Batch of 2 targets.
Target 1
Amino acid sequence: MKVVKFGGSSLANGEAFQNAINIITSDPQRRVIVTSAPGKRFADDIKVTDLLIKYAQAVIAGQNPEKIVEQVLNRYQEIAAYFGLPADKLIPLAERLEGLPSHTYPNNNYLLAAFKAHGERLNAQLMAILLQHLGYEARFVTPSEAGIIVTGTPNNANVIPETYVNLSHFTFNENELLVFPGFYGLTLAGHIATFSRGGSDITGAILARGLHASTYENFTDVDAIYSANPQIVDHPQPITTMTYREMRELSYAGFSVFHDEALIPAIQGNIPINVRNTNDPEKPGTMIVPDKDFQPSDIVTGVVSGKHFAALYLHKYLLNKQAGFTLRILEILAKHNVSYEHMPSGIDDITIILDRNAINDQLIDTICNEIQEEINPDRLEWIDNYAITMVVGEGMRNRTGVIDDILMPLAEKHIAVPMINQGASRIAIMIGTYNEDADEAVRAIYHRFFVN
Ligand SMILES: Nc1ncnc2c1ncn2[C@@H]1O[C@H](COP(=O)(O)OP(=O)(O)O)[C@@H](O)[C@H]1O
Ligand SMILES: N[C@@H](CC(=O)OP(=O)(O)O)C(=O)O
């Protein structure tokens, strides 16, 4: 049995749905389907998830959300009309969407999560209705029925192990197609909580592990995962096979084609992942497999830059002799519920790299002031435009001189490199640059390893 996930770009309109349905029904192994919310139909279109965020904000602000609700409904109606589905079939979906403000939520963060989750929920319901309309035996299954239980914050949830116990009891018959909404689960208290953005990939991986799929197929809008983001490098080389570890490093740093957290259930269940193109399903796509099944043929598999970072640089003489220095900084971060991403250090210096999206300007001021007072460093500098370029490849292990090949093209382009971190993971080298240099750094390194 295969779990098949379709991203928002693969379910954006009727034609895309038809492609997805052709894919589902062309292979009897494809039994478990995971849907995202309808994505963009054209470049300046708005994803349904973003419309639902506006809907939630309007409700929170006490404004009339009628127009936004209509926009959302139109998206589903457009798809239904493509298949000639009778209008009354969509009434339960419309009622559910319109009824969202009348439910009670523990707070506005839960309200936002519940509204957002309905993009996937309504799309899964619609997919099941369409499959039935076309004569297939199909069942819409909610996370509540399947027992997908999560904890953490309402808009950045994590799955808990109990989910896998629940899924082990989940039964389905030989012929039916099951359609699950991606992106959300239920808390132990029974409230909807979503994963972080792009999190339908995570639902697919949870189901692949929990239902013991032979493969997790992730259908998107590109032929393969490329060695660099195709929006930054022209016609980058497609990756045929890569390891879970490589993909995790690359997706964490910005290969948005697959969510980094979705690798974890797949690793735990040892499920191979196949990323493929909905618009060209004959292409083999990219296989993501366990390390033991992989023989690297290239030194570098991929290069990527993440621009959503910021860094706190601290300099203090004899830092290495001060017991508890780092601990006191981390305590300040923990007090404000801020986690750090990386922390390279030297004898007198330490740089703490943070996710810029997770902290606001006011919190930055508070944290910097508290560190200044508590630690009294000789120098404290907040770097707001910090980017991390990650060069990743199983083939880099046990190779010498790779770092020279990475730094040389950067030097030739006069790109400043305030940080290099090669160590903990032997398959990745992390280069700190400034945001404005990040794309150029990717192109320079890509060129060195894939073109020369
Ligand atoms: N290295 C990469 N290889 C392929 N696509 C990439 C890469 N890095 C970023 N992308 C982008 O990821 C997009 C697919 O991800 P996303 O839009 O989230 O898809 P979906 O809607 O199917 O979930 C591609 O269209 C591409 O622009
Ligand atoms: N719809 C959600 C979750 C998701 O995974 O979407 P997509 O498959 O379009 O990346 C989002 O936009 O974040």
Target 2
Amino acid sequence: MASVARVDLDGNPIKPITICMIGAGGFIGSHLCEKLMSETPHKVLALDVYNDKIKHLLEPENAHPWSDRIQFHRLNIKQDSRLEGLIKMADLTINLAAICTPADYNTRPLDTIYSNFIDALPVVKYCSENNKRLIHFSTCEVYGKTIGSYLPKDSPLRQDPAYYVLKEDESPCIFGSIEKQRWSYACAKQLIERLIYAEGAENGLEFTIVRPFNWIGPRMDFIPGIDGPSEGVPRVLACFSNNLLRREPLKLVDGGQSQRTFVYIKDAIEAVMLMIENPARANSHIFNVGNPNNEVTVRQLGEMMTEVYVKVSGEPKLETPTIDVSSQEFYGVGYDDSDKRIPDMTIINKQLGWNPKTSLWDLLESTLTYQHRTYAEAVKKAISQASATS
Ligand SMILES: NC(=O)c1ccc[n+]([C@@H]2O[C@H](COP(=O)([O-])OP(=O)(O)OC[C@H]3O[C@@H](n4cnc5c(N)ncnc54)[C@H](O)[C@@H]3O)[C@@H](O)[C@H]2O)c1
Ligand SMILES: O=C(O)[C@H]1O[C@H](OP(=O)(O)OP(=O)(O)OC[C@H]2O[C@@H](n3ccc(=O)[nH]c3=O)[C@H](O)[C@@H]2O)[C@H](O)[C@@H](O)[C@@H]1O
């Protein structure tokens, strides 16, 4: 490790710690492990059922300088007696494990609720009982819909940020009716947030809750039929990437009118690093982590991804680059949507001085360059094999 002492935001030296990272093999976990290995002296106990996305960090033949600082434990937290022991061995637990693809919320609501609430319970309990710090990954979906979405379409108040900007300590959580099973995920995440908050208030649990706002980048989800199930529906970045790779129109659900703010995974990881290394500033807080400057409708996202992909692949644009599909057709019964998601940044700015840097165009350019490099050949091969057998 570099001999220059690393210091926290208050100028104090940072002591190396051991982190129990649950869900370390996923999209966010893989980027966090990479950062911790390449830039810090911390140790990681990486827990997951899969490790494909962190294989490059684990392979001994690469003889990484960090090989004694990362240890993979293949386990399912639903049923594994090793969990408490691993939490006890660490100074900090980070829980990322969850079902978090919207296509599952209304079609597998029980698995969604169990994964996001019931399975997270023992993690909270073991942290609380053993006096271990917890960073828990929640979601911006806990805000649900904006207050403004209930105003008449022509109301001038819809333009007033008071009706749509989402604040950790003020905004309500507005979900649809129970038949709209889309909200099973948000509701389970909300309840685990309330439980963690209560453990802090009643039993002194040291916790930080993260609410990511559409973090995107390389290694997010999967490309159906290549490194995931052919019928699987990942999140929008991977859906649109898959369409672009296969040269088929991007599907805009209900006209692509919903709005999102997208933040580059590498910017967001900087925020998590600040939380890890500044416990006194991060404990007992809930943080929005997003990029309010990168707002687009899903239609605009599709158009921008199409332009960027032309640039990175050198392939011409399709004559019909997008098509509209109904949400019922795409996701099935019980789907509903968040209309707009702008994170208020006051708390994370004040506590951690964090700001996102990367524009939407730039983050799409680096991400789609990765998608093209990683998948274009495999997709071509899969298409030619399918046409040979049909
Ligand atoms: N990516 C985002 O923008 C975003 C936004 C909001 C919230 N989040 C939250 O952040 C967390 C991580 O998200 P991600 O995008 O990295 O998702 P991901 O699906 O890529 O990663 C989750 C990982 O958890 C693992 N996991 C799930 N259940 C498990 C179990 N029972 N035992 C062991 N491992 C298990 C999965 O195998 C997967 O590798 C989730 O809690 C998600 O709800 C992410
Ligand atoms: O990433 C987040 O911050 C959170 O929000 C996501 O929810 P959402 O943004 O609705 O999920 P996406 O699949 O990324 O969809 C974004 C929008 O694109 C639309 N979409 C998706 C896929 C597609 O092919 N076409 C399309 O129009 C969806 O209907 C939705 O309006 C997921 O719930 C979580 O991963 C996470 O908690």
